[in-house]
Amino acid sequence: MADPATISPATLLKDELDIVIPTIRNLDFLEMWRPFFQPYHLIIVQDGDPSKAIKVPEGFDYELYNRNDINRILGPKASCISFKDSACRCFGYMVSKKKYIYTIDDDCFVAKDPSGKDINALEQHIKNLLSPSTPFFFNTLYDPYRAGADFVRGYPFSLREGVPTAVSHGLWLNIPDYDAPTQLVKPLERNTRYVDAVMTIPKGTLFPMCGMNLAFDRELIGPAMYFGLMGDGQPIGRYDDMWAGWCTKVICDHLGWGVKTGLPYIWHSKASNPFVNLRKEYKGIYWQEELIPFFQSVTLPKDCTSVQKCYTEIAKQVKAKLGKVDDYFNKLADAMVTWIEAWDELNPSGASKSSDLPNGASK
Amino acid sequence: RTLRAGKLTERVLKLFIATGKDEVFSLIQALNIQVTVTPVLPTRALRPDLTSFMNEWRTIFSRFHLIIVKDPDLKEELKIPEGFNLDVYKKPDIDRVVGTSTSTIFSGYSCRYFGYLVSRKKYIISVDDDCYPAKDNKGILVDAVAQHITNLTTPATPFFFNTLYDPFTEGADFVRGYPFSLRSGVQCALSCGLWLNLADYDAPTQALKPEERNSRYVDAVLTVPARTLMPISGINIAFNREVIGPALLPSLRLGGEGKFRWETMEDIWSGMCVKVVCDHLGLGVKTGMPYVWRNDRGDAIASLRKEWEGVKLMEEVVPFFQSVRLSREATTTEDCVAEVANVVKEQLGTKDPMFARAAKAMLDWVKLWKSVGSSTSSPGA
């Protein structure tokens, strides 16, 4: 396989990657990203009032969906897509026809690395996705496939080929992704630490996945990237990406794929209002005490050999075990099933590679 | 009063210091009470002259008590510069403490374990003698000792991954989505540092990439998640001896074990044991900073001419340790080590006599630790 470090990744994946952006305000931030994003196709998911016109800067190739479009395309199944919350972005994943997705928030800008150079976040995500992951044994020098690094002494050779990377989770300089209580206690804290590492999150370990700067192999893991029921009419917000992350990690662990975290950094410019956040999050803060043990103990049967089967199985277990925490989880479990149905309708399995793996894949 | 009762432990000392009273500080200075850290320095067969090593580390090491253990196979006299507070142990000393038949386990790189055995301090820091202080990205000299102590004295978070790495470091915290009940963390028992310049690669890798040098300074410390194993290198580590001491042990010796790090696996084996024990006892293991600067040494290709057992070994060792489950009854480190040893004997001992010897060495070590290593200087700690 060619070394991704030597081929210009932008040329490679120009026609294989969509950039999904949820927005409610405007897309001015795209100006700063223009040198990096312009070759790619954008899928803009407009949240909020559909009668408002969102202006897209000149020169970008895009498709834009508002709530009316979502309702028209999905019909009754549109109930699974959140309204008045950036969780609606997952609609973009569903309608995309590309192999890879990069999603970014509209208050995220180009960051600079310690040498002062602009960071091409998309390029780094592509490198992460195109090189293997190593979830079964931790490499102390982090990503062994990066230039200048390798596997350390003691790393078994049989594990050095790695596994396919399904998710690349990027980080943020400036405004860190804190929850509301932490924001209230430390309103002035800024993340100034550039940690020059990419690493695989080990198998069996969960993490809080942030959707602000995220890329994934849609053909591999797309159906698991459902961002849940948030926003208008829902008791909770700001847990959309968390939910998708926990489901995704459980499924990746089961199917033997990797999740990376670390570089690239983007510059997160807008600190959301912590009091508003607290109102959205507060149920999540105590629900997550139940959710984490739930996800840590989920086991998927061997015959769950596709992402859809795994996801449907998780939905079943959500209903069975979390329904008693709050009725919200019954609704969420139903929405998860609706999502998979909608996904399969829009992505009939001749076209996509989301196909069954041989049984040997689960460990 | 506390001193006279023999009840001055590190924890009690911290309480006194926390009062912020001047009389406390001057009393501490007058009595020359040391912070309870002991850098342990094993020597290598090729390096009897420790002068440049110790001078490079002087500003960082001179505050602490040093234990220097001379490889019993090293024939030349050690050259050690003046001005350090240290104890030196050579073959006669080792023989005296553990007996001549047992002292053979401390040859080569394993001589450092003798230092761990005889130390009576709470924390141990161990650095190979081909490593010098490194500089960080701003060009400032890294105080590896201070960083290891920080790692060991702040909680670890093995049950959920924090994407901003160590949440207890300045300028960072737990991210959104991190459960609050897991934010107090657990005690950190082991701190694994890294290396700039010559990274800890095995011989095949080093031979394939003879020019490769690690120049990437990753400004992070992170907790290695529970049940995740990793190769724990002995080149630059620190640990809480009181909590995990018996689990760092000399036991696996390769048939062709040699004078260069890439001709050994003893630390990797020991590290697997330590991680399994920590996971079982709910203790944390951190990895990342501090970095040391590791000097070029040896010819990897020459090492490859020997049959490279270490490579084949890990294919067995890793799945084995990944499958080890300790019993509920194993509640102390010694018990855990003994249980691991028995499982090694049962499951790996039949595959290769080297494992059977390792298992026996582990059980012997637990006995040795109980008789020689376990009396601490702080009663009621």
From TrEMBL, chain A:
<dbReference type="GO" id="GO:0052691">
    <property type="term" value="F:UDP-arabinopyranose mutase activity"/>
</dbReference>
<keyword id="KW-0961">Cell wall biogenesis/degradation</keyword>
<feature type="site" description="Required for activity">
    <location>
        <position position="160"/>
    </location>
</feature>
<feature type="glycosylation site" description="N-linked (Glc...) arginine">
    <location>
        <position position="153"/>
    </location>
</feature>
<dbReference type="GO" id="GO:0033356">
    <property type="term" value="P:UDP-L-arabinose metabolic process"/>
</dbReference>
<keyword id="KW-0333">Golgi apparatus</keyword>
<dbReference type="GO" id="GO:0005794">
    <property type="term" value="C:Golgi apparatus"/>
</dbReference>
<dbReference type="InterPro" id="IPR004901">
    <property type="entry name" value="RGP"/>
</dbReference>
<protein>
    <recommendedName>
        <fullName>UDP-arabinopyranose mutase</fullName>
        <ecNumber>5.4.99.30</ecNumber>
    </recommendedName>
</protein>
<dbReference type="GO" id="GO:0071669">
    <property type="term" value="P:plant-type cell wall organization or biogenesis"/>
</dbReference>
<keyword id="KW-0413">Isomerase</keyword>
<dbReference type="GO" id="GO:0071555">
    <property type="term" value="P:cell wall organization"/>
</dbReference>
<dbReference type="InterPro" id="IPR029044">
    <property type="entry name" value="Nucleotide-diphossugar_trans"/>
</dbReference>
<comment type="similarity">
    <text>Belongs to the RGP family.</text>
</comment>
<comment type="function">
    <text>Probable UDP-L-arabinose mutase involved in the biosynthesis of cell wall non-cellulosic polysaccharides.</text>
</comment>
<keyword id="KW-0325">Glycoprotein</keyword>
<dbReference type="GO" id="GO:0005829">
    <property type="term" value="C:cytosol"/>
</dbReference>
<dbReference type="InterPro" id="IPR037595">
    <property type="entry name" value="RGP_fam"/>
</dbReference>
<dbReference type="Pfam" id="PF03214">
    <property type="entry name" value="RGP"/>
</dbReference>
<feature type="site" description="Required for activity">
    <location>
        <position position="153"/>
    </location>
</feature>
Automatic annotation (TrEMBL), chain B:
<dbReference type="GO" id="GO:0005829">
    <property type="term" value="C:cytosol"/>
</dbReference>
<protein>
    <recommendedName>
        <fullName>UDP-arabinopyranose mutase 5</fullName>
    </recommendedName>
</protein>
<dbReference type="GO" id="GO:0005794">
    <property type="term" value="C:Golgi apparatus"/>
</dbReference>
<dbReference type="Pfam" id="PF03214">
    <property type="entry name" value="RGP"/>
</dbReference>
<dbReference type="InterPro" id="IPR037595">
    <property type="entry name" value="RGP_fam"/>
</dbReference>
<keyword id="KW-0961">Cell wall biogenesis/degradation</keyword>
<dbReference type="GO" id="GO:0052691">
    <property type="term" value="F:UDP-arabinopyranose mutase activity"/>
</dbReference>
<keyword id="KW-0333">Golgi apparatus</keyword>
<comment type="similarity">
    <text>Belongs to the RGP family.</text>
</comment>
<dbReference type="GO" id="GO:0009506">
    <property type="term" value="C:plasmodesma"/>
</dbReference>
<dbReference type="GO" id="GO:0071555">
    <property type="term" value="P:cell wall organization"/>
</dbReference>
<dbReference type="GO" id="GO:0033356">
    <property type="term" value="P:UDP-L-arabinose metabolic process"/>
</dbReference>
